[in-house]
Structures are given as structure tokens and as C-alpha cells.
Amino acid sequence: MDKIRITCRSSDGFSKTRSFKTWEGATKWAIACVGETPEISETFGYAVCKHGVNKIEASVPVNRLFPKIWPYHPEEGDWRYPDGRLNPLGQRWYGG
What we know:
alpha+beta, disordered C terminus, globular, two-stranded antiparallel ribbon, 1 helix
């Protein structure tokens, strides 16, 4: 798997890009930057924290980084709710 790259930017000019080999590491960094339930723009591919100060962009669809919003199990290759049901809005969103 290619590395997952995430860039975190804030309104005060802070910007940092990190690369991750695992989904766990990428998810932790994304949540640290914008919280567990940010506002997500699927059209433009970024997530913004609720107060609008921090924003992330990633080399993967950003919604995959926030399990409280879009539960995803990479080993299964599709989107699932915690009880195992398929999420019809995101099924096979990124090809898994």
C-alpha cells in the first residue's frame, strides 16, 4: 500500500504534512488536527474542524479517516456500519 499523506493547515499559517504506512496512524493524525467529527467536503476533498480554524487534505478520500462519520474496514474492502451492515452511500467508495 502507498503511504497516506495528510496535510494539516490552520488559519494562523501553520502547515504540516505527514505520511503514514497504516490507517491507524493516519486516522490519529487527522483526528488530532480537526477532531472526530469534522465538516467534510467530498467534492473538494478536505475536512474542516467544527470551529473552522483547522483543515486537512489527504491522498485518500478524507471521509475514510473519520470512523465516527464513515465506518470503514479496509480489510473488508467496503463501507460498513459497526453492526456489519453495508453503508449504501459509501459502499466501495475507494475500491478497497
